[in-house]
Amino acid sequence: MDFILAVDSSADTHQHWPNGSSLINTQKRAQSLLSQYQPGDVGVVPFPHVPEDFQTWVTQELNYKPVFFGCNSSNYTNITSHNGASSFASFVGPLILYLPNAPWSYYTNTSTFQLDYISAEISGFFENGELQVSQSQKSNHTNTNTTCSATTEWKKCVGCAIMQRSKERANIPLGETCKGCFDRYCWGGGYPENRLLNGTMVREDGTYDPVLEGGGGGSFQSQHEFIQRERRRAGVGKNHH
Fold first, then answer.
1. Per-residue pLDDT for 225 more than 80?
2. Which domain range does residue 96 map to?
3. Residue/partner pairs of 126-132 with CB below 8 Å, 24 or more apart
4. Residue 83: inside a domain, yes or no?
5. Distance in angstroms (rounded) separating the CA atoms of residues 47 and 23
6. Domain membership flag for residue 187
7. For residue 113, which of 16, 186, 189, 222 sits 20 to 30 Å off, Cα-Cα?
8. Does 241 fall in a domain?
C-alpha cells in the first residue's frame, strides 16, 4: 500500500470538529500489531509518525488544513518483532494525505444526531466539501486567477503524494515541484515555516473555534441564527432541542 486518503469528519471537540484522535488511535493500533508481528502474518502495515497529543494538532492547525504524514521512509520507525526474528527496515508504509473536516466556506460541524437538513444546509455542506477538496475559494470577479493557480498547484501536490513511494522504490529524485509541495504540506515533528497559522483558532479558555478559510464571510453564530430561522420557516426540527 503506497497511499491513503484519510478524510476525517469526526466530532472530537465540544463543537464537533476533529482533533486528530482517529490517526492517533490508528497509530497506536498499528504499533501494537507491529510489536506482535510474526513471519507470515498478513494485514500488518506500518504507520507513519503523527503527533500523539491533541493540543499539537490544534495549535499547529493539523486538524484544519491538509497535511501529509510519512512523506519519506525516514518517517517510519524500524520495528522488530518481540522475538527479534523480523525487521521492518525494508517494509515502508503508505504516505497519508489527511483531510479533516473544516469550515472552508460553511460551518459543517453539525451534531451526529441531527437527521434532517434543509436545502440551505445541504448546499452549504456540498460547497464546503468541494472547495476544501480542491483547496480553492469561492469564485468572484477578483480572485479567479489566484483560485485557478492554487487549485492547479494542489492537484500537482496530490499527485506527488500518490507517486512518492513508487519514486522512492525506483530511486527517482523528488523534483522541484514535489519538493515545494512537501515543504508546504509534510509534517515532520513540527510544521513547515510557510504553513500560515491563523492565530485565532484557540481562545484563551482553550476552546477550539475555527474560522472560515476559503471565503464566504460570517461567523458560526450568524450562520447558526440564519439556519435556525430557515428551519423554522420550513417547519423542520420543531421538536429538536
1. yes
2. 3-234
3. 128/103, 128/104, 131/104, 131/105, 131/214, 131/215, 132/99, 132/102, 132/104, 132/214
4. yes
5. 9
6. yes
7. 222
8. no
